[in-house]
Design goal:
Blueprint: H1 2-28, H2 31-38, E1 40-41, E2 44-45, E3 53-55, E4 60-62, H3 94-97, H4 100-103, H5 112-116, H6 148-160, E5 168-169, E6 172-173, H7 192-195, H8 201-211, H9 216-220, H10 226-237, H11 243-252, E7 262-263, E8 266-267, H12 296-305, H13 307-310, H14 323-335, H15 348-356, H16 365-372, H17 374-377, H18 398-401, H19 406-415, H20 434-447, H21 467-477, H22 479-482, H23 497-502, H24 505-514, H25 536-549
Helix pairs in contact: 6-10, 6-11, 11-14, 12-14, 16-20, 19-20, 21-25, 24-25
Length: 552
């Protein structure tokens, strides 16, 4: 009995000691306390206490300012500490918005590793510094972002025309012309993509220049070409803050990812939905073959380098991207996250994208093509070939475009090729609108050197021949590439009602006879040591057979 009493006593004392140690550690030895004790402001030492920023409207509470004391409201830290000191100038004040809304991490934590998310499989880790702009994607979802080539051309036009001389953009420029406030004659253009600007700016600028007797207006402003004004319009439309994120989105709109992946309500179904990929829990990812840190950031970087190494059985080919391209695409992936914010805080583009499903890319032919078509048909339209995947055909060869009518191209894009990777982009939920498909058709012709369909005096269906003969010839000459039942293999599927309803016999007869440049399709009217030559009558029989498939 006495033995148990002593055991209970010692256990109680032990627990008490542990509580004392924990209390002392929590109140005297925490890292944030040491940082605060070392920090000095203009009045001297600061109060050592747990600090936090609360914004109930944004549903944000974080204690980052317990260590980063220079960002606590109203504080000016004079000590030269790593984590102390004022935040760099940003559009959103961290004293009002908190820190985690931009940087991520666990705002309620008081330990460095936990706060930064540097804990294995800890959800929502802090964004690395080079990807910090990714957080802007929570709110800023600018529509009408072009592909990277168009974006860079537009941005370079703004610089080439010396617009920075009078206008400031995100802290740069506006200091070279004398006479204005702070040397800046023109308004700050940093947010005109949100706020808007006077569409008559050019006429007003030109009028001022023509009316000026001398001075900067007389000597500096010159006439601007229509092409340059269009580029300026594109660039000004992207000025919605977070220019690095805009560049990342432009890169995303250049590599055809939405041909397979959905973002929001638009895109393909072959790959995973990317709409909220930026907030994915790293604990749900496979890091077996991923080198380096077990973080969401590193996973994305490695995935872009070698998709099949990070996702077993992935059909996504290695795109041969540069490190800069991978960095931009990774930033865009990390930006695809959502927070429940009141509409009051959301830019109009964010609301339009969420409420009305508007497309988050520029609606010109070049950007539409690069966004959904380039990954399969190549940036130049000449087709892509990836190991282990049937080749994607060229769509810009002159022999193809001279036979393909605009309606044929339109219907192919609109209705797709059932059973093949080519989706029905016009018939999908929130798909391409007719005017957008027409713009895409026009761009495809532009890629092919503006080759137009040659006038065809014949009706759509005119070929004559024996269907049984055609079936036999198809089996012996065509099935190896196009499949036993013309369903498609290495070559495109021909047993397709959508295809057969819009293609002409002239197209089929000519293509079989002469072949298709940029593909493995050789002309059967031409002699070959590896296959027999077909007569025009035999080719017509093959066409009659293909037509019969469309009636089944």
């Amino acid at each position: 009995m006495n033995k148990n009493k002593y055991l209970l006593l010692f256990a109680s004392i032990g627990v008490l000691l542990l509580l004392v140690v924990a209390a002392v550690s929590e109140n005297f030895f925490k890292e944030w306390q040491g940082i605060q004790k070392a920090a000095k402001n203009q009045e001297g030492a600061i109060d050592v206490r747990l600090r936090q920023i609360v914004n109930p409207n944004l549903k944000v509470t974080d204690r980052c300012v317990s260590c980063h004391v220079g960002m606590a409201p109203g504080e000016q830290i004079t000590s030269n500490l790593t984590v102390a000191g004022a935040h760099k100038p940003v559009y959103h004040s961290p004293t009002e918005m908190g820190c985690t809304i931009c940087h991520g991490g666990q705002g309620l934590a008081t330990e460095k590793n936990a706060a930064h998310g540097n804990v294995e499989f800890w959800p929502e880790p802090m964004l690395p510094a080079k990807y910090a702009y990714a957080s802007c994607g929570t709110c800023h979802t600018p529509l009408n972002v072009p592909n990277l080539k168009t974006y860079e051309a537009a941005k370079n036009t703004f610089e080439r025309l010396d617009c920075y001389a009078c206008h400031r953009v995100e802290g740069r420029g506006g200091t070279l012309r004398v006479g204005g406030v702070g040397g800046m004659e023109g308004p700050d253009l940093s947010g005109v993509g949100i706020k808007g600007y006077n569409a008559e700016w050019y006429a007003l600028h030109l009028q001022k220049s023509q009316q000026a007797v001398d001075g900067d207006w007389k000597t500096s402003f010159k006439e601007v070409s229509d092409a340059d004004r269009e580029n300026l319009k594109i660039y000004l439309g992207t000025l919605m803050g977070a220019s690095k994120l805009i560049e990342a989105k432009a890169q995303f709109n250049s590599v055809g990812c939405t041909g397979c992946h959905k973002v929001g309500s638009f895109g393909g179904d072959a790959g995973v939905d990317l709409s909220r990929i930026g907030e994915r829990d790293p604990g749900q990812l496979n890091f077996t073959k991923v080198h380096g840190e077990r973080t969401l950031t590193n996973w994305h970087e490695q995935h872009f380098k070698s998709p099949s190494s990070t996702v077993a059985g992935s059909l996504m080919p290695a795109l041969g991207l540069t490190d800069d391209q991978i960095d931009l695409l990774t930033m865009y992936m990390l930006s695809l996250r959502r927070r429940s914010l009141p509409d009051l805080y959301l830019p109009k583009d964010r609301i339009r994208a969420m409420r009305f499903g508007e497309h988050e890319f520029a609606l010109n032919g070049a950007t539409i093509y690069s966004t959904i078509c380039s990954s399969c048909h190549g940036v130049d339209g000449k087709g892509n070939r990836f190991a282990g995947i049937p080749p994607y055909p060229s769509i810009v060869s002159s022999d193809f475009l001279s036979l393909a009518s605009d309606d044929f191209l339109f219907q192919t894009i609109n209705k797709g090729r059932p059973g093949r990777p080519m989706l029905a982009w016009g018939e999908r939920e929130n798909g391409l609108k007719p005017d957008e498909i027409k713009a895409l058709v026009a761009y495809i012709r532009q890629l092919g050197g503006n080759v137009q369909q040659q006038p065809d005096p014949l009706p759509q269906i005119w070929a004559t021949g024996d269907v049984n003969t055609g079936a036999r010839l198809f089996a012996s000459n065509c099935s190896g590439c196009h499949g036993k039942n013309a369903e498609g293999a290495d070559g495109p599927g021909l047993n397709n009602k959508v295809f057969l309803s819009s293609v002409t016999d002239t197209f089929l007869v000519t293509t079989i006879g002469n072949g298709r440049t940029g593909t493995v399709m050789q002309g059967f009217l031409n002699p070959s040591p590896t296959r027999r030559e077909l007569t025009k009558a035999e080719i017509e029989s093959v066409v009659v057979y293909l037509r019969s498939l469309g009636n089944k």
